[in-house]
Amino acid sequence: MKLLKLIGVLLDYPDDELWLHREELIAAAADPCLSPQRTAQLTGFVTALMDADPITMQERWVSLFDRGRAMSLLLFEHIHGESRDRGQAMADLMQAYQDNGFVLAVRELPDYLPLVLEYLSLRPLDEARDWLGHTRHIIELLAARAAERESAYALLFELLAEFSGERSNLQTIRRSVAGEARDDTPQALDRVWEEETVRFGARAPDVDCAPPDRLPAGVERVAHKESRA
């Protein structure tokens, strides 16, 4: 599943080293699981990225993903916010990684989407699709928000949603997002880090971000022991 690995690399912060792998990235975009139209679009995305100035693309990435919470690549932030449930979800995910011999060698949180995609690229196809199916509501939300901001990154989220193989809800989400208040303006950035529960921004879309009742394949609840005085 080289496609998931590629999308994870493209969604990650584009450090200078990325430009050393131009030909590899363009070749990887021709994934056999994609339609000719999607292959052309993904190849175009990679080519445009590689043709651009690294500093410009790094600034663009920060502007999209690192200002405000609406476009955060931390999946659990969209589900749990800063609630205690997020800690439990982190523990469950870390345990799943460890059970399958996936060791985190970077300082990223386990729910960081590019990291999740790297893990899924090493797992069986059905399992990877099951995981993405559980996060599809978030991925489609990110796709709609990226498109609303006229960002080329919308394509990557759309490809992930399609990979899951589940019924699309993207059109409904796009209509909701169209009236959503931006959280990356200077005024909004002064307020966005206030404590919130599940939804972000002054007006959240009518999309339920509650996690599915069933956990993705291979993930089990990690019991927490109560501390005693």
From TrEMBL:
InterPro entries: DMSO/NO3_reduct_chaperone, NO3_reductase_chaperone_NarJ, TorD-like_sf
UniProt keyword Phosphoprotein, yes or no: no
Region: Disordered, residue numbers: 204-229
Family annotation (Gene3D superfamilies): TorD-like (1.10.3480.10)
Keyword flag Transmembrane helix: no
Key words, A-Z: Nitrate assimilation
One MF annotation (Gene Ontology) recorded for this entry: metallochaperone activity
NCBIfam families, A to Z: narJ
Name used for this protein in its record: Nitrate reductase delta subunit
